[in-house]
Amino acid sequence: MHTVAVLSLKGGVGKTTVALGLASAALRRGVRTLVIDLDPQCNATSTLEPDDTDTSIYDVLQEPTLEKVRAAIATSTWGEGVDVLAGSEDAELLNHPDPGESRLGRLREALRVLAEDEEVPYQLVLLDCPPSLGQLTRSALVAADRALLVTEPTMFAVAGVQRAFEAVQSEREHNADLQPLGVVVNRVRPRSHEHQFRIEELRDIFGPLVMPVALPDRLAVQQAQGACMPIHEWGTPGAREVALAFNLLLARILRISRSRRRPVHSDFDDEEIQEAVEA
Ligand SMILES: Nc1ncnc2c1ncn2[C@@H]1O[C@H](COP(=O)(O)OP(=O)(O)OP(=O)(O)O)[C@@H](O)[C@H]1O
Ligand SMILES: [Mg+2]
């Protein structure tokens, strides 16, 4: 089970879009996936439209028992391969700024009991975080084995991703397994000099941790989300471009997570590209 926290301490840069895009690529590739919606805005839950559950992340974070976890999970309308652990506006009540170890460990405990119970375990768990560093995001960092940082190629977003990286490093005190998976740059317009400048700046700061595939700024992303559809099913040229980028990202995530000690290379190898194009 690869558990990936998708985070950024800046709002609106594309965390939910990345979590949903990866879920869409996973669905296409037959990778059984659970999306956990930690954001009280519940954007991921709204787009994946699971059947109503009486229980949500709010209950799971208070009482991480198998009974609560099971009750909070439902199949998404995208298909059998993608399930959702439903978000809740009430989760904001649990977003303590200084939560203490016991509260921080509850999501990790929930995932532990779930992994033990599942006959066919999830291969991928995606944690969609809110844009703040309170109990919710920190719980994700304690539960995850990888952290995927999302940014836009703008000045304030770059500053936000630096703070997120520092948060990942400091949470390793509670979770020694946690590794930064990389920085994914979203909403890139290749002809923008400002964007190219910010991407170079990110490469200077993060080196090979900057993912070799960037996500282009395409209207199809908003259209597919508005229609609650996976980007892989939207079918326009823009959607296909974004879907291919997500295939590459997913291939990279699965590969890096499989071999923990493998150094991160910034380029894709032929096998990764072949897998992504065929997916
Ligand atoms: N690559 C893209 N191309 C076009 N629009 C995009 C792209 N990525 C994100 N958007 C749009 O930008 C808006 C913000 O994206 P998203 O909700 O994923 O950000 P977020 O980081 O999860 O926000 P929040 O901090 O509020 O949770 C959404 O309307 C989304 O459709
Ligand atoms: Mg979001």
Automatic annotation (TrEMBL):
Gene3D superfamilies xrefs: P-loop containing nucleotide triphosphate hydrolases
Protein name per the record: Cellulose biosynthesis protein BcsQ
CDD domains in UniProt: ParAB_family
Lineage: superkingdom: Bacteria
Pfam families per the UniProt record, alphabetical: AAA_31
Coiled coil: none
InterPro entries (alphabetical): AAA_dom, DNA_Partitioning_ATPase, P-loop_NTPase
Domain AAA: 1-178
